[in-house]
Structures are given as C-alpha cells and as structure tokens.
Amino acid sequence: MYESSPNPVTQLLNRWTSGDEHALHELVPIVYEELRRLAHYHLQSERPEHTLQSTALVNEAYLRLVGGQPLELQNRDHFFAVASRLMRQILVDYARSRKAAKRDGGCRVSLSNAVDLPITNDQDLVVLDQALEELARIDERQARIVELKFFGGLTSSSAAAVLAISRATVDREWAVARLWLHRHIRTSAQP
Prior knowledge:
Layout: H1 8-17, H2 21-44, H3 54-66, H4 76-102, H5 122-138, H6 140-151, H7 156-163, H8 167-189
Helix pairs in contact: 1-2, 2-3, 2-4, 3-4, 4-5, 5-6, 5-8, 6-8, 7-8
C-alpha cells in the first residue's frame, strides 16, 4: 500500500530495503521503545515466571531481522508486523525447547475471548503455533490476520493496511479464524 507522505520510519525502511545499511542504524533508536512495548505485549501472555525479558526479546528479534537480506518492508505497520512475527517465532522456539526439556503433556488452549487468545503456558503457545501452521495451509490470509492481531497487537485497521484489504474483511476473517482455531485445538487435545 502506497503512502503519499511516508513518515520517517517508512522512509528509513525504504532506504534500508534499497541497501543503505546506515538507515537501519538510524531506524533502531526511533522504533526501539515501540519494539519494547510490543515485546512486553507478547510476554504478558506468557507464564509469570518466564525468563525472557522484553529487552532480550527485542534484541533477539533485531538480530534475526538484520541477520539476512533486507526485507521488502512496505511501511511502518508492516515493519512492526514482521518484528512481531519474529518475536512469536522466538517465543515458540523457546517454549519448544522448554517443553523438550520437561517432556510433559496436557494440551489446552482457551480461545473464548473475542479479542484475545489467552496463552497460559509454554504448552499452549506450542499448540497454538501448530494450529496456526495448519490454518496457514488452509487459509494463509486468516493465519496472517491472527499473527498481526494476536501476536502483533495490530488493530483491524492496521492489519488491513498491511494486507491491503478492507477492515471489514479483516474483522470477518479474524472471527472465522478464531472459531477454526478453537475447534481445531479442542479436537486435537481430546485423547
């Protein structure tokens, strides 16, 4: 989606995408606090004794972001959506490693709230991630909407801008995706 007068974040993202390494170094101080808020948002859904801190999550996401080729980031919202997705992957990897260390069972994720998808422990996050991967095979757009809204904390309007679709479509697909995830997780948790 094209912005008529890009904000400084979008301008720096455009420069970085074009190969300007200095643009990324200029970008980080501008977005760092918002990235910390995003990391804090992700960690609020984690178990109380989680050992990762917001700063560590931001740093790990930053390392993964700059570790490869510059991404084709369209604008500020797209940047935060990608950062959020990276944070999700980091938390899921962390949860999987803890689960592998514990080797415990019990699959239960509550998806009843209309806005939030509560995650109470590492197991729930892994189960939700597996369900989301299955949803992506069936409907990629619905999976992206869940990532943007749940993991990214984006509003329906911001998610619509990132995906270049209407807000009504985002809201409709979000509702369908939540129902599908709830049903899929519930049936997969039954012995």
